[in-house]
Design brief:
Blueprint: H1 3-53, H2 55-134
Length: about 140
Amino acid sequence: MTTWARSLIRISTYEVETLQKRLAEIGSRRASAEMRLAVLDAEVEIERERARADAEAGMLLQAYLNGWKHRKSTVEADLGELEAEEEGARDALTGAFEELKKFEHVAELSRLERLAAAERRESAAFDALGLRRRA
């Protein structure tokens, strides 16, 4: 494999690895946001149960629900942004994989071409040797 092909493949592999790490980090942040959303849902259920049991807590429930709706909308907005970011990262990773495969394909074709040329030279040398022996 030629030096230029090795360098291109190495650079492309690095780019793919970097994008994979970015995608994993986005997935981690998304899982964290989904966990925050689940915790918020659990908290509101606890507060509703408490409001049923305690009249004073029942009076404060509406104020709690207003704050809860705000926090929930913030987390849902974060999830929307993370989904868009994840989609972009997946597209970038797909493109990087395509580029890497192109470089690998070109390098393989180059290697096969060199092997075929070497075989042709060897065959020509053996043909010339055979002709000299006959003569």
